[in-house]
Design goal:
By secondary structure, this protein is mainly α. About 60% of the residues lie in helices and about 10% in strands. Helix 1 crosses helix 5 and helix 2 packs across helix 4.
Amino acid sequence: MNEQPLHTGYLAWHFAQAMGARLEKDLRALELNLAQYNALQHAERRPGISSADAARQAGITAQSMGSAVGSLTDRGLITRSDHPTNRRVLCLHITPDGSRLLEQAREVVRRVNEEALAVLEPDERTAVHHLLHRLVAHLNPDALAPGDGPGQTHRPRR
């Protein structure tokens, strides 16, 4: 009987699941989960973004993003304002406290990333990063901030 090779998508899914679990665990020290981290990221990258757009870009459900935004709002890390033309849409804005927490969270994400990729040589890390960036740009380009290239880090636009 021939064994079927594991598909790249299957391996990527398992890698994403393992990374997500590690990130969730380590972000917990900051009283954040991944959905909340994503909400903060998107509110900083695109001030005034709607919760629905942030959810689409993060690749999570609108319900998950809504819950994340609600808890961040309660903590004073995000504010919501009325959309200028659509009464049903609320615009997200990160607060100064939210920005400070996001910087701490980015350090957690950087550390988890370094630990996860420690098994790879520096040139392999670069190659994997470039390939994953191309795949995300192809499959979910909204997940990438404008101007993010494969060699750039995620920094807020000013």
